[in-house]
Amino acid sequence: MEAPIIRRTRDREGYLATAEGPRLWYRIEGSGPTLAFQNGVGVSTTFWTALARRFARNGFSTVLWDYRGHGRSDPPKDPHNVTLESCVADLGSLLDHLEVERACLLGHSMGAQLGWEFYRAHPQRVSALVPTLGTYRDAISSFFDMPRLAPFAFSAAEFMAENLTGLVKAFTALPALQPKIADRLIRKLSIIHPTLSPKDWLPPYLEHMAGLDPRVFFSLARGIRDHDASDLLPTIQVPVLVVAGDRDFFCPPRVAREMAEKIPLAELLVIPGGSHAAIIEQPALIEKRLERFLRERVVPLDPAAASVAASEVVAAAPFDRPPFQPILTRRGGEARIAPWSSDFPAFSPPSSPPRRSRPPRSPREQPETPPGRSPPPKKP
């Protein structure tokens, strides 16, 4: 494993002008090995902001940025020029601008596919990959596990976005007018976790979607529909942590297991109850697992610091053994790291103490019959 590139920096945010004109917004915080966070299509930095800030305070340099036409970045002159390939080029330009030689790439949803293609183009600049709630091929067919209906619905929506852009934009702005109703609906449909998902992230996300050009959205969506990194995965030579949610209806966990099987010595974390928004639903779980992955396989600590870090993880665990313990298995003659098992002690409710039966009342304790009423009939 190559030595990580340690970057010392001062927190700042700014804009990077691209060759085509639109500026890319970015923010870099912390100092140390670089973690670069890639977003999903149609999403700004909503899901990564809190996690990036925590790692920036714990020995890492973190980079957040927005794609063209997303968040605080400028809209493109031609919405059809925003593609997976243009995002790969923009990420390379951003790392050049920030003087980052190598980085660990974390990608949510579409960001996972961006990570694969950046590694294909610049393997020497990638220290590790963390595809999170994403896929490696055709991101549309896996929606709700409907390989026939999902592409048909996508094509219909794409046609409307290209030919009835104003109408589609007005329609996507409606949820932003009633965010509470939208929140209740997606919880009821289990698109997000009904209880673990916080309530403060959806209004900004809906406002962002309301301002997004639908042609930019579908230009990127076409790219992740046609993308296929099946040939690349077996050749990856950097540490990989695949993160999945077992209730993710957009990128089902079976897709994550396929990825982990194809990548040599990849690790897999399946988040119990995790939806496509699991990053903000269970941030502590993801943070602990990611920190262990980085410290063990990407940026090893010296022995003394590693011992302290391990003891902190064990002390924080509510179970008898350290959480997220990888299990080495062998398949096809090769050692592989299987996902951490969930063999935690099953919960059994405490048994309630037996109810004390009250002794029968003595004749003196029997209630008197009120005057004018006949005594109740005795039970046989």
Order of helices and strands: EEEEHEHEHEHHHHHEHEHHHEE
Low-confidence stretches: 312-352
Mean pLDDT: 84
Helix- and strand-based class? alpha/beta
Largest sheet: 7 strands, mixed
The general outline is globular
Rg value: 27 Å
Report the span from N to C terminus: 85 Å
As a percent range, the share of helical residues equals 25-40%
- Beta-strand segment tally: 11
Strand content: 15-25%
What would your notes on this structure say?
By secondary structure, the chain is α/β, with parallel strands linked by helices. It is 37% helix and 16% strand. It is built from twelve helices and eleven strands. The strands form three sheets. Strands 1, 2, 3, 4, 5, 6 and 7 form a seven-stranded mixed β-sheet that branches. The chain has a two-stranded parallel sheet with strand order 8-9. The protein has a two-stranded antiparallel sheet with strand order 10-11. Helix 1 links the parallel strand 4 (32-38) and strand 5 (61-65). Helix 5 (165-177) packs antiparallel against helix 7. Mean pLDDT is 84; it is low at 312-352.
Relevant terms:
two-stranded parallel sheet; globular; seven-stranded mixed sheet; 11 strands; 380 residues
Topology overview:
Blueprint: E1 6-7, E2 12-17, E3 23-30, E4 32-38, H1 49-56, E5 61-65, H2 84-97, E6 103-108, H3 110-121, E7 126-132, H4 149-163, H5 165-177, H6 179-188, H7 202-211, H8 214-226, E8 241-245, H9 253-262, E9 267-271, H10 278-281, H11 283-298, H12 303-316, E10 327-331, E11 334-338
Parallel strand pairs: 4-5, 4-6, 6-7, 8-9
Antiparallel strand pairs: 1-4, 2-3, 3-5, 10-11
